[in-house]
Inverse folding.
């Protein structure tokens, strides 16, 4: 979700992608020749056995286990099928890889290569995150109960939809007047809301709980200047900036809390019946809640003007009627 | 036969175009401006100053290259708050209370009359541009991706840096100083606000300015006010706003009148006369 962290990969990646192999294992009824799962080695089905970039290393056995699970679930294939109604002027490439090999590599869209990369470590991190949240749920009252399966599926889907937003803005030359990171969140929320109430709730919950948890661990900018002479004060200027009450706001992303409020507001604005409980329990303050219907309308207007014309409506109906989550992933608790 | 069909089609297409342009002409909207008299005597000096300096008349002249399909109104008034809670489409409202708040904030942070005047002028330009941008989005039916308040800021920042150093210096430095001096602390559910924190807005404006004029605003990066991590992204942010502007606003701009506007000296009032 913070795609800039991967900027260093982009240049090194160009040569690799050109040397790669296109492959197609998607169901014929959902095929789209502009959406390509990209193999590094013939037969890897786009699930690379390494990281990405010049110094990429083979994935560890733990990451290879994640890779195998993703292959069993046909994650890339299903993602390609989900995207198939898009009429893209340029080819979009999808891969899964060990990314930088780091512990918290978030999936990202790389505009230089028109490529979306799903990082193995993100699955592992999302699972850890879900375990923590399930634990918190036993002592604290959250917006609404949630299961581990629902959390993981919802978070993963919301991140994929967010990156899809970045890719679509780039490939379709969508005019983006607001901040692009918010715009990508808005695209994710809007798409999720077009798939029925159960799917919408899974995606919005996964997303909202992720950012709520992130904010609860202090990721919103602080209001007290840090003690710069403390022994644990970081030396890295970027980390120093995150601790500074002014500089922390320089991030091109909204704060964790802002991102949560934006998306739950759009969910409530788009479907007040399904998301009424957000307001009832006070997760969405009434002052914002009263604005949400018009925020959703503004988003719908933008979507209809700039993206809708690029969607094959016949195919879209098929995608919308298909079930994308398992019953366990749609179950509220 | 083929030829005949072709001519009929050409004829009807021309008729259609003529009809459409006639409609467009008939629907031509204009910019109107107005200074509403406040009932609160404390706000009266602000009203008189703005009126005497004819700031909205200058804005109106500045906006003449716009070919608007509908009416756009910019008005200064007493709102009962720093911003209006509800406003009809196509109306930009600048509240005297907001100008008053700016003047108080500035007085708290500087004793230098020249700096104070520059910041007040720049911050005022920001408010007028921001509110006008929101009304313009409605009048031109511009699709907005992202938060509307940020979109209005990014368009305002983009306009501020298209008309030479004199405007961009006053407007950007005034805006940036005011946001930097903000005393509002954001925590928890404060972040549910539709508006962005002033510090975020600071970086959004400065980012656009830095790309448009690195000679004038590059020192913000050198001094570390605009951190390198964000500065590295500003070029693509700027390009994004420019692309959105070219696609959605530029088609409504008369290119010849724009040149005239660019050759006109602006902000004569900002020197404190």
């Amino acid at each position: 979700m913070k795609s800039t962290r991967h900027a260093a990969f982009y240049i090194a990646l160009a040569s690799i992608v050109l040397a790669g192999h296109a492959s197609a294992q998607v169901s014929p009824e959902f095929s789209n020749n502009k959406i390509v799962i990209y193999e590094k080695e013939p037969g890897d089905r786009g699930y690379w056995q390494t990281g990405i970039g010049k110094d990429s290393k083979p994935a560890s056995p733990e990451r290879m286990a994640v890779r195998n699970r993703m292959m069993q679930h046909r994650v890339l294939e299903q993602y390609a099928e989900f995207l198939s109604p898009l009429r893209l002027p340029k080819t979009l490439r999808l891969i899964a890889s060990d990314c930088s090999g780091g512990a918290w590599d978030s999936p990202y869209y790389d505009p230089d290569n028109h490529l979306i990369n799903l990082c193995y470590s993100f699955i592992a991190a999302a699972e850890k995150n879900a375990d923590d949240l399930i634990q918190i749920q036993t002592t604290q009252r959250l917006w609404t109960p949630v299961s581990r399966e629902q959390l993981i599926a919802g978070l993963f889907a919301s991140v994929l939809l967010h990156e899809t937003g970045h890719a679509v803005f780039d490939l379709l030359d969508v005019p983006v007047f607001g901040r692009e990171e918010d715009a990508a969140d808005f695209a994710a929320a809007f798409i999720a809301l077009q798939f029925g109430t159960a799917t919408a709730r899974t995606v919005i919950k996964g997303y909202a709980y992720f950012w709520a948890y992130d904010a609860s661990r202090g990721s919103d900018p602080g209001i007290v200047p840090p003690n710069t002479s403390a022994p644990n004060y970081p030396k890295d200027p970027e980390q120093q900036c995150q601790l500074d009450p002014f500089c922390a706001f320089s991030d091109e992303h909204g704060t964790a809390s802002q991102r949560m409020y934006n998306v739950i507001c759009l969910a409530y604005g788009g479907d007040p019946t399904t998301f009424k409980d957000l307001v009832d329990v006070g997760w969405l303050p009434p002052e914002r809640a009263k604005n949400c219907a018009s925020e959703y309308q503004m988003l719908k207007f933008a979507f209809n003007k700039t993206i809708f014309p690029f969607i094959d409506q016949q195919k879209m109906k098929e995608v919308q009627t298909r079930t994308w989550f398992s019953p366990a992933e749609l179950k509220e608790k | 036969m083929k030829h005949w069909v072709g001519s009929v089609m050409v004829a009807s297409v021309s008729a259609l175009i003529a009809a459409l342009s006639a409609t467009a002409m008939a629907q031509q909207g204009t910019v109107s401006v107005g200074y509403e008299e406040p009932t609160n005597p404390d706000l009266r000096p602000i009203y008189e100053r703005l009126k005497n300096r004819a700031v909205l008349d200058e804005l109106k002249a500045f906006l003449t290259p716009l070919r608007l399909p509908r009416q756009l109104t910019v008005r200064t008034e007493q709102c009962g708050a720093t911003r209006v809670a509800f406003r009809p489409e196509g109306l930009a409202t600048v509240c005297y209370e907001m100008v008053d708040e700016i003047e108080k904030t500035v007085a708290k942070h500087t004793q230098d009359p020249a700096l104070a005047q520059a910041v007040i002028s720049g911050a005022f330009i920001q408010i007028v541009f921001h509110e006008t941008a929101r009304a313009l989005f409605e009048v031109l039916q511009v699709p907005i991706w992202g938060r509307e308040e940020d979109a209005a800021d990014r368009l305002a920042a983009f306009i501020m840096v298209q008309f030479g150093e004199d405007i961009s210096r006053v407007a950007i430095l005034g805006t940036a100083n005011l946001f930097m001096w903000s005393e509002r602390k954001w925590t928890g559910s404060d972040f549910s606000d539709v508006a962005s924190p002033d510090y975020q807005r600071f970086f959004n404006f400065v980012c656009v300015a830095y790309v448009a004029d690195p000679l004038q605003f590059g020192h913000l990066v050198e001094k570390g006010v605009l951190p390198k991590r964000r500065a590295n992204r500003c070029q693509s942010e700027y390009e994004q706003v420019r692309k959105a502007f070219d696609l959605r606003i530029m088609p409504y701009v008369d290119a010849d009148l724009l040149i005239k506007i660019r050759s006109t000296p602006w902000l004569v009032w900002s020197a404190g006369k």
Remarks:
- The radius of gyration of chain B is 21 Å.
- Chain B touches chain A at residues 137, 142-148, 150-151, 154-155, 180, 185-189, 191-194, 196-197, 199-200, 202-204, 224, 226-230, 232-233, 237, 240-241, 243-244, 247-248 (CB under 8 Å).
- The first strand of chain B starts at residue 31 and ends at 35.
